[in-house]
Design a protein that fits this description.
- By secondary structure, this protein is an alpha/beta fold.
- Helix content is 33%, strand content 23%.
- It has an 8-stranded mixed sheet, with helices on both faces. An 8-stranded mixed sheet has the order 3-2-9-5-6-7-8-4, sandwiched between helices.
- Helix 3 packs antiparallel against helix 4.
- The N terminus is likely disordered.
- The structure holds zinc ion (ZN).
- The site of zinc ion has 5 residues, from helix 10.
Length: 482
């Protein structure tokens, strides 16, 4: 499908990318970094985007077989069984479940209401990891703050005995980056409020919709500070609290959470491989997370990512000749409430991390690719530019440096493993993220196929190039905060 004309387009794109980066353009007669035959194979993988892939079959399999699958739940065990059986059935090698222990938290009864100045029902849900309220619930006046900084600036006597309402609104953006800017209130709001003497915390849902479906998500308590119950109200309910607050009368809220911390439970990372034919000990990790918040069925978060990486590896396994390095698909456990899967993988595989040539994670739903994020040593720039031109037909040619690939693979940064991700269109993803609405019907199959093709083309090149990517430079080997 790609003749000489398109090849010229590629060279043109290379020159433009180089100019945009303020670097000398690649000379027209410079030999390509990716050998022509390898490039043709990668282009054939890119073309799979337009004829369709089987990625949605694997998404549907995980969603319908395991459904709700938070760590330690019955669905979590079913998802492990599904992962092992599916990877074996598709012909992956060395299929196994690598066991680990992860937090086990369960949701319970959840009720909420405005008591004064006027009675209203509140749609709310516990943040994952929250302690329960007393059985009779918490009942107190709310103190509204816009963000954590405003909360920190309050006098303790103004906060003591109150339920803090953190009213920080997530902005809708094309690439979903509004999420990271808003999620601090969910992660850290409870301990920051408790430090000032609050008895509970309610946050505006971290989501971009206006449905009465509150968004759950992980939070954590700091040591040495009382643990107070933490919930998210739906966006329309947060709007109501905001309007009532503007009336100037005290707003009193009552809520009940029956959630329970059940300690730890056994779970597992599920792994399968496409063995390399030349240097099988060198590894390209393609990751996603198998677990999901139990309000919904985790179709977008992150069965979509699992469908993408399983199908990308399957497409590569079906090529006439396999690449040099091993492609290892890792369906991580416990991304949502602990990251125990990502941490355990890095610890268990520490001895072979120097042989990890690249890691990529898919964890932003089924939106179409819009770019490519990379983090490797500077000598990888010429190769990255060619990968960028390869992904141009998918709309994913824009390169973003210094990404961390994804939460589960982020611990690998400490070993300098080059980290990658395909950036995705995610303007609607956070309408349903971590809500009951995250269901299979939301999967955008043509976009999922484009993502699959982008991941397959990248993974094939990463696994085939004679010289691997340069490791992440020592000064950039820092763990992110999630
Ligand atoms: Zn996720």
């Amino acid at each position: 499908m790609r003749g000489g004309t398109l090849r010229w387009t590629h060279i043109h794109a290379l020159a433009l990318t180089a100019l945009a980066l303020g670097e000398p353009a690649v000379a027209a007669d410079a030999p390509p970094v990716i050998p022509p035959e390898m490039r043709r194979t990668a282009e054939a993988l890119v073309d799979k985007a337009f004829v369709g892939t089987r990625a949605s079959e694997w998404v549907r399999g995980l969603v319908d077989t395991a459904g709700s699958r938070l760590s330690g739940s019955p669905g979590d065990k079913l998802a492990i069984e599904w992962g092992v059986a599916t990877l074996k059935r598709l012909g992956f090698a060395n299929v196994r479940a690598e066991k680990l222990m992860a937090p086990h938290w369960v949701r319970g009864v959840e009720t909420g209401e405005v008591v004064a100045p006027y009675p209203h029902k509140l749609f709310l849900t516990a943040l994952g990891g929250s302690v329960p309220t007393p059985e009779s619930g918490l009942d107190a006046e709310i103190l509204e703050v816009a963000n954590l900084e405003e909360l920190d600036a309050k006098k303790p006597e103004d906060v003591r005995g109150k339920i803090v309402f953190i009213n920080k609104r997530m902005q809708r953006t094309l690439d979903g980056t509004g999420y990271g800017k808003a999620a601090d209130v969910r992660h850290r709001g409870a301990s920051r409020a408790a430090k000032q003497g609050a008895i509970g915390v309610i946050i505006r849902s971290i989501g971009t919709d206006s449905n009465r479906t509150p968004h759950t998500g992980g939070m954590r308590y700091l040591d040495g500070i009382p643990k107070i119950p933490a919930a998210a109200v739906s966006n329309p309910d947060a709007d109501l609290l905001e309007r009532l607050g503007k009336e100037g009368k005290p707003v009193r809220v009552r809520f009940t959470l029956g959630c329970r911390d059940k300690g730890e439970a056994e779970t597992a990372n599920v792994i399968g491989e496409v063995p390399g034919r030349g240097s099988p000990k060198e590894i390209i990790v393609l990751g996603c997370h198998r677990d999901a918040w139990e309000l919904g069925t985790g179709a977008e978060d992150d069965a979509a990512g699992c469908g993408i990486v399983i199908e990308a590896a399957r497409l590569i396994a079906g090529l006439g000749s396999r690449p040099r390095r091993t492609i290892r698909v890792v369906l991580y456990a416990n991304e949502e409430n602990g990251l125990a899967g990502g941490r355990k993988y890095a610890a268990d595989h520490a001895a072979e991390l120097p042989l990890h040539a690249a890691a990529l994670e898919a964890d932003l739903g089924s939106g179409r690719p819009i770019g490519f994020s990379w983090n490797a040593g500077p000598s990888s720039i010429p190769l990255m530019k060619e990968i960028s031109s390869l992904l141009e037909p998918l709309g994913a040619s824009a390169l973003t440096p210094d990404g961390l690939g994804g939460a589960d693979i982020s611990p690998l940064v400490l070993s300098g493993v080059p980290l990658f991700s395909v950036r995705q269109e995610a303007s609607r993803y956070f309408d349903l993220h971590h809500t009951p609405n995250d269901t299979f019907d939301k999967i955008d199959i043509p976009s999922l196929d484009k993502m699959t093709a982008a991941v397959a083309a990248f993974a094939y090149v990463a696994a085939s190039m004679k010289e691997p990517f340069e490791k992440i430079p020592a000064e950039k080997r820092k763990l992110p905060e999630f």
